[in-house]
Amino acid sequence: MKDIAIVILNWNGQNYLEKFLPNVIAYSGECRIILADNASTDDSVLFVQTNFPSIEIVINESNGGFAKGYNDALKKIDAKYYLLLNSDIEVTENWVEPLYKAIQDPLVAGCQPKVLSHASPHLFEHAGASGGFLDRNYFPFCRGRIFEKFEEDLGQYDNETEIFWATGAALLIKSELFHKANGFDEAFFAHMEEIDLCWRLKKQGYHFKAIPSSKIFHVGGGTLPYLSPKKSYLNFRNSLFMIVKNHEGWLLPKLFYRMVLDGVAALRFIIRGEFKQFNSVLFAHLDLYKRFSILLKQRKEIKLTSTNFNKTGLYNASILWARYFKKIEKFSDLNKRFFS
User: Fold this and answer.
1) Which tens digit of pLDDT belongs to each residue from 242-277?
2) Would you list the domain boundaries of the chain?
3) Cβ neighbours around 34 below 10 Å, total
4) For a surface tag, which of 77, 95, 157, 303 has the fewest beta carbons within 10 Å of its beta carbon?
5) In terms of pTM, does the model score above 0.85?
6) What CATH architecture applies to the domain 4-218?
């Protein structure tokens, strides 16, 4: 596994490095371990240089967020495979080997481990759980997590399976394909950039897989708390960006319907007195209008490179309807005939 570079993007995360880096070193075999520092203002870099001199360090000139931070760093790293790893993750013994085995398949562009909550280790964690999917309106959900409902890990999703998107919290990806796709979309800044990247590569026929025999524990919300209005803004905005770029077929009807659903969410925020969350939706849509012409240009470019769209992992029904009207809380209870 010498051809894997484990790249940990860090911004002012010395506390996480102190806590979790020793396990990464102990359990990652012969993989190279690289700290990609996103212009931290704490002593992260000095701490790693002093305590872990074998770790390589790449320093970005500015903090451009998750997307640009990784793009900038990975341009300087020569490796066959990149294993992108959040700094707030506790890895387990032999976590790399199953991922490495899976990515040897020529059709597999990337894969992820099973992601459990560090605070509640018996529960799946928000960022990826046991593999990511999209519904027909492009709302993301996972094996083990539907919106705010997190399932207990009872081994029910321990089978390897093809998914639609793999979490950026712990993503093993072929470097050639990452660069061929021009990496993450830097306009996203953070959140959903990995879904967009997986979507673009799937439109070229590639596969993504969940490999639950590899297991990690994720703190989550280390940079932005899960209920942060800024996180909501990024999620609403970036979801709209993805739809314009990647939706196949007539764009405007799909986009209009999705905007109506966002309007319902915004109204719900007002009724509950969550005015900052309402503003998150409003500013997300304003940003869509501002960037619409650029997104249409990207859409055209993506169409030119699309060959054989691999739709595995699309749920051809509404996950909103399933969760909030049919009261489904478990991935295993979803109607399997709706999955591509």
Assistant:
1) 999 999 999 999 999 999 999 999 999 999 999 999
2) 4-218
3) 22
4) 303
5) yes
6) Alpha-Beta Complex (3.90)
